[in-house]
Amino acid sequence: MTSGPRLVVVGDPAGRRVAFFQDALRTAGLPGARAVSWPDVLRGRARFAGGETVRLDSPGEDPEADLLLRGVDDPARVEGTGRWYGRFTAAVADLGRCVAEAGAVLVDDPSELAVLFDKRLGHGLLRAAGVPVPESPTSGPGAPVVRGWADVRALTAGAGLRRVFVKLAHGSSASGVLAVETNGAGRVQATTSVERAPDGRLFNSLRVRRYTSEREVAAIVDALAPDGLHVERWVPKATQGGRAADLRVVVVDGRATHAVLRTSRSPMTNLHLGGARGDLGAARAAIAAAGGRWEDALGVCERAAAVFPGTRCVGVDLLPASGWRRFAVGEVNAFGDLLPGLTGLPGGGAEGLDTYGAQVAAQFPGSTSGLSPLTYPSRTTGTSTP
């Protein structure tokens, strides 16, 4: 192995994300990265050296890190995301200072991570930049704080919204998400993966369920509210084979490189909740048949990523509206690249590479072995409205 960049990855040393990154380095002919665990970072034990390049990856697969961040007794519990956010953003800020003082380089901007992990702040920045997003009464730093179900009721009624998603402001992987519907008679129901125990504790479940009484919905929302809530319009999605469809699009250094279509019979398309990968080619054909352009859909994702210029790779959740003509951005994910087996889009410059390989090729184009530098075709992006 020839000498190369001195790399460090902060993540779960035994987890899939770090393994995929190390595999991408080896494939590119680069030396492996030194792995630093999130528990070491959170306990102040992580050290860095001059000349190192430091990559941050998700702490999500590390049970010890989850306990240190959320402080809950069971990793299946939903509560604790507000505590997670405070501790995580403080740790990342401290890590950034430590890296700089050591003369090392941090790949991503800690201040952007603090926005990416707050759905209210991220939504506000996207909206201000003209990126199409669902209507929301909790968007931006000046939005009202949601203290419980009564506030959700008042905010949605004031905005004329009968179908909304209520989300944990700092949640991920659909944890704590409720798809709430209110009919003309005022009857409320919610679809969610949250399971409420008899003692009131909330647990993530792999089974999507429906709560049909306002009392039950209110109890869940009231329990989630102390961690922070974001409310947004439930955009009716396009369908494929009778299933709701959306896309996760990975953007590397400003260019959309990978995309996966996710379909589900429930409002949540997450694969671990029963969602399935759909037919991306058929979706592209549906966009064309509706008079749209696939390139414009990718352009919306690239515009969303451009709002976070200090973050080299993001996963954009793109919501195609019914009819496949219009698109909105649900959210932008800092660690949205865990898509095993997915290779780059044709013509996107990352053909044959997985999401980690694309990031390595983009960051170290002169050091790859057997790989061409990641290059991008020109694209004229159009506009879209939610």
Number of E-state strands = 15
User: How large a portion of the residues is in β-strands, by DSSP E?
Assistant: 15-25%
Shape field:
globular
> Helical percent range?
25-40%
Mean pLDDT: 93
Measure the end-to-end span: 50 Å
Q: Please report the number of helical segments.
A: 11
Rg computed from alpha carbons, rounded to a whole number of angstroms? 21 Å
- What order do the SSEs take from the amino end to the carboxyl end, as H and E? EHEHEHHEHHHEEEEHEEEEEHHEEH
Structural class: alpha+beta
Largest sheet: 6 strands, antiparallel
Low-confidence stretches: 380-386
Give the SSE layout.
Blueprint: E1 6-11, H1 16-27, E2 34-37, H2 38-42, E3 52-56, H3 63-70, H4 81-101, E4 105-106, H5 110-116, H6 119-128, H7 149-159, E5 163-168, E6 178-182, E7 188-196, E8 202-211, H8 214-224, E9 229-233, E10 239-240, E11 243-252, E12 255-264, E13 276-277, H9 280-289, H10 294-306, E14 313-320, E15 327-333, H11 355-363
Parallel strand pairs: 1-2, 1-3, 3-4
Antiparallel strand pairs: 5-6, 5-9, 6-7, 7-8, 10-11, 11-12, 11-14, 12-13, 14-15
Helix pairs in contact: 1-11, 3-4, 4-5
Characterization of this structure:
- The protein has about 375 residues and is α+β, with helices and mostly antiparallel strands.
- Helices cover about 30% and strands about 25% of the residues.
- It is built from 11 helices and 15 strands.
- The protein has helices at about 15-25, 40, 65-70, 80-100, 110-115, 120-130, 150-160, 215-225, 280-290, 295-305, 355-365, and strands at about 5-10, 35, 50-55, 105, 165-170, 180, 190-195, 200-210, 230-235, 240, 245-250, 255-265, 275, 315-320, 325-335.
- Strands 10, 11, 12, 13, 14 and 15 form a 6-stranded antiparallel beta sheet that branches. A 5-stranded antiparallel beta sheet has the order 8-7-6-5-9. Strands 2-1-3-4 form a 4-stranded parallel beta sheet.
- A hairpin with a 2-residue loop joins strand 10 and strand 11.
- The longest helix is centred in the N-terminal third of the chain and has 21 residues, at about 80-100.
- The chain is globular and about 70 Å long.
- The relative contact order is 0.13.
